[in-house]
């Protein structure tokens, strides 16, 4: 017994006559846009954006670590200066030694004082001895003062160096933080863009869905159901 079959062309003609073709396409497109996958812009961008902090950290970390260490040392030194200045002074003064030229300068000064006392007939007198002590004391005080000036200069240079290292650490931390903030801003922008595109896609899907339904039920099939419902 021969079996009746319908060709593709006949099927398409039937669907078109009933209003199924365009309606089904509209409904299918609408459902896809409503429930289909998003554009994935944010996800794809984040694959690369999330790699940047780890890739850049080795370049920032040495300066951030050095700056943090320098900050701790600075706080300790400033704490000594403001809390117990005598400790710093005594520590620096404790390393004093006569300069290489001190003894030579003292010998010359004492010779000059002796010659002056001898010329005035004062050699060996208490007044001459007092003058010699004053000269020796003045030279010793100057030698110690020169030493302390050098030490305070070196100490100040050390504090300045720590301050510079701390500033480099601060700049590195600020730069790294700004970079992270910029990356978060870019991720937020991509996320907002994807959400906007998703909303547009859903709006388009709703239009396609209702358009497809309208096509289906507004054609001959709609009239058929309308007659049945109306009796």
Instruction: Give the overall silhouette.
Output: rod-shaped
Please work out how many helical segments DSSP would assign.
Answer: 8
Strand residues, percent: under 5%
Strand pairing plus helix content: what structural class?
Answer: mainly alpha
Percent helix, as a range, is: over 70%
Give me the count of strands: 0
Specify the biggest β-sheet. Answer: none
Sketch the topology as an H/E string, one letter per element. Answer: HHHHHHHH
Record keyword descriptors for this entry.
single chain; 231 residues; mainly alpha; 8 helices; rod-shaped
Write up what this structure looks like:
This protein is mainly α and 231 residues long. It has a domain at 59-216. Helices cover 86% and strands 0% of the residues. The protein contains eight helices and no strands. The protein has helices at 8-18, 20-35, 41-49, 52-83, 85-93, 102-119, 126-218, 220-230. Helix 2 (20-35) packs antiparallel against helix 7, helix 3 (41-49) packs antiparallel against helix 7 and helix 4 packs across helix 5. The protein starts with 7 loop residues before the first helix and ends with a helix.
């Amino acid at each position: 017994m021969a079996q009746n079959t319908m060709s593709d062309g006949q099927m398409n003609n039937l669907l078109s006559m009933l209003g199924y073709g365009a309606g089904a396409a509209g409904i299918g497109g609408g459902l896809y846009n409503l429930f289909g996958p998003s554009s994935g812009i944010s996800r794809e961008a984040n694959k690369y954006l999330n790699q940047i902090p780890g890739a850049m950290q080795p370049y920032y970390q040495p300066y951030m670590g050095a700056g943090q260490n320098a900050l701790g040392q600075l706080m300790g030194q400033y704490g000594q200066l403001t809390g117990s200045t005598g400790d710093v002074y005594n520590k620096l003064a404790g390393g004093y030694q006569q300069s290489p030229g001190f003894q030579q300068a003292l010998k010359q000064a004492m010779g000059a004082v002796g010659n002056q006392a001898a010329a005035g007939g004062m050699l060996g007198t208490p007044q001459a001895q007092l003058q010699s002590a004053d000269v020796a004391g003045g030279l010793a005080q100057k030698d110690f003062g020169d030493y302390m000036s050098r030490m305070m200069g070196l100490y100040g240079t050390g504090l300045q160096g720590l301050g510079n290292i701390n500033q480099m650490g601060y700049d590195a931390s600020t730069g790294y933080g700004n970079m992270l903030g910029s990356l978060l801003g870019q991720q937020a922008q991509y996320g907002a863009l994807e959400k906007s595109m998703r909303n547009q896609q859903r709006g388009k899907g709703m239009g396609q869905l209702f358009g497809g339904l309208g096509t289906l039920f507004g054609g001959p099939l709609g009239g058929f159901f309308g007659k049945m419902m109306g009796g």
